[in-house]
Specification:
- The structure is a single chain.
- The protein has about 400 residues and is of the alpha+beta class.
- The chain has a domain at about 5-35 and about 45-200 and about 380-390: Ribosomal Protein S5, domain 2, CATH 3.30.230.10.
- The chain is built from eleven helices and 13 strands.
- The chain has helices spanning about 5-15, 95-105, 130-145, 150-165, 175-180, 220-240, 250-260, 265-290, 295-310, 315-325, 355-370; strands spanning about 20-30, 40, 45-55, 60-65, 75-80, 115-120, 185-190, 195-200, 205-210, 330-335, 345-350, 375-380, 385.
- It has a six-stranded mixed sheet, sandwiched between helices. The chain has a four-stranded antiparallel sheet with strand order 10-11-9-12. The protein has a three-stranded antiparallel sheet with strand order 2-7-8, with helices on both faces.
- Helix 3 (about 130-145) packs across helix 4.
- The chain is globular.
- The N and C termini lie close together (about 10 Å).
- It binds alpha-D-galactopyranose.
- The site of alpha-D-galactopyranose has 10 residues, from helix 5.
């Protein structure tokens, strides 16, 4: 939908014009999967798809929410005086949670607001639509209430909303990528210290293709939590032998030296993924800095294999997309991205091969899995922000 249409929808819905427009992107992750909550590195980037929030302040304490993506729910009303989580409030728990936790962090949000959300990130595809709505709300509150918030503080509040309000035990990667994204660059982030650097992604002859399995991510959050606790258990067994705070602190050599201390084949595989994936992510930055995109592609392939065999979070659909992608001409690298268990994969593909890539992978996937995949070209966009006039088309 065009912005003009959304402006009209806002006016029709709330009987007043919108005052300001905010945006937060979705994200993909180049490499460094399931490393954030293990104290390792990640390498995500913000995409140009995302969540728009048209908003206006109110004079009373009412909150009125409308989503053009869930228009069947109509306007959902809330109040600044009742910001607790309620299952029946559905998607509005995200903006409500953000409002509550920002207030608790000491930011003065002293009146209600009307907000219309519209997102063009496919929902539930693992491109972080939930972190996107959290951060869209964050920048909206910052703008409407003239707050002075350090961006990394806002990112941390977004993660707290997910962890303690919504109840998903995720790491910091998604909110960080969305809050700190920069056009043309990926963010190389140390999740233990939050030190980060922007790494320009220059692909003159190639593009990043997002491949959506269109498979619902069933059991994703329970399996996610299971992997987290498996890593915690492996770490605590290793800590009996070596003094480290997280799996992300271990080099691959240290891991090989001490892995017997884990004493369980499955836990050892989980930890091995975390340690080697972190090493690959560190190496990916070095390769990228030298302009060696081919080497980054090989690291991406290895990352997928490890997520498939050691971490076991891929499944038939993601494996079919990625394995098929590997066999196509012009593919530099391909892997799943995000939490796994369905969702999306990415591939770096030479431009001249993209059309045949999409049709070959799409056909093969349909044959094997009986589902139609979707393909999107990823452009690397900026982070969460208020949109200026030129950006509102
Ligand atoms: C989800 C979580 C992130 C991260 C990834 C896996 O996207 O929200 O914190 O753990 O899975 O890398």
């Amino acid at each position: 939908m065009k912005m003009e249409g959304m402006g009209r929808l806002f006016a029709d819905t709330f009987n007043r014009p919108a005052e300001r427009v905010f945006f937060a992107p979705g994200r993909i992750n180049l490499i460094g999967e399931h490393t954030d909550y293990n104290g390792g590195h990640v390498f995500p980037l913000a995409i140009t798809f995302g969540t728009y929030a048209l908003a206006a302040k109110r004079e009373d304490n009412k909150l009125r929410f409308y989503s053009a993506n869930f228009s069947e729910r109509g306007v959902v009303e809330g109040s600044l005086d009742a910001l607790g989580y309620r299952e029946e409030d559905g998607w509005t728990n995200y903006p409500k949670g953000m409002t509550k936790l920002m207030q608790e962090a000491g930011y003065s949000i002293n009146t209600g607001y009307d907000v219309l959300f519209y997102g063009n990130i496919p929902n539930g595809a693992g491109l972080s639509s939930s972190a996107s709505i959290e951060m869209a709300t964050g920048v909206m509150l910052e703008g409407l209430f003239d707050l002075d918030i350090d961006r990394i503080e806002m990112v941390k509040i977004g993660q707290r909303v997910e962890n303690y309000y919504i109840g998903v035990n995720s790491g910091i990667m998604d909110q960080f990528a969305i809050g700190m994204g920069k056009a043309g660059a990926a963010i190389w982030l140390d999740c233990e210290t939050l030190d980060f650097e922007y790494a320009p992604i220059e692909l003159p002859d190639a593009s990043i293709v997002i491949m959506n399995t269109n498979k619902r991510r069933e059991l994703a959050s329970s399996k996610y939590n299971e992997r987290r606790s498996e890593c915690e258990e492996a770490l605590s067994r290793l800590q009996k032998q070596i003094d480290v705070k997280s799996l992300g602190e271990l080099t691959t050599d240290q891991f090989e030296e001490y892995r017997a201390a884990i004493g369980d084949a499955v836990l050892e595989k989980r930890a091995r993924h975390a340690v080697y994936e972190n090493a690959r992510t560190i190496e990916a930055l070095n390769k990228l800095k030298r302009g060696d995109v081919e080497a980054v592609g090989l690291l991406m392939n290895e990352s997928h294999r490890s997520l498939e065999q050691d971490y076991e979070v891929t499944g038939k659909e993601l494996d079919t997309l990625v394995h098929t992608a590997w066999n196509q001409p012009g593919v530099i690298g391909a892997r799943m991205t995000g939490a796994g268990f369905g969702g999306c994969a990415i591939a770096i593909v030479l431009n001249e091969h993209i059309d045949s890539f999409i049709s070959e992978v799409g056909n093969r996937y349909k044959e094997e899995c009986g589902i139609e995949a979707a393909f999107y070209m990823a452009a690397i966009g900026g982070g969460a922000r208020e949109l200026v006039r030129e950006e509102i088309k």
